[in-house]
Amino acid sequence: MINVPLFVSDTEQMNRLAPILARREYGPGTYISRVEEHRGKDLFIYRIGLKIPIEIADAKDYYQIIRKLPDIEEIRFEMIDSGKFTYKMRSFEEFTEALKRRDFQTNQMLERELVKNTYEAIARIPNVANTMTPFMEISNSFRFRDRLELKELERSRKNKEQISNYIGFMVRSGYLVKEGNFIYPTSKLKDNLEGDPSHFSVKLIGDMLKTGYVDLMRLLHLSGLKPYFSAAYSYYMPSSEARKLLKMGIDNLSFYHRKIYRSGVNRIKLQNHVSMLSEVDILSVKDRMIMGKESLLEKQLSTLDSFTSCYV
Question: CATH number of the domain at 133-218, please?
Answer without folding.
Answer: 1.10.10.10
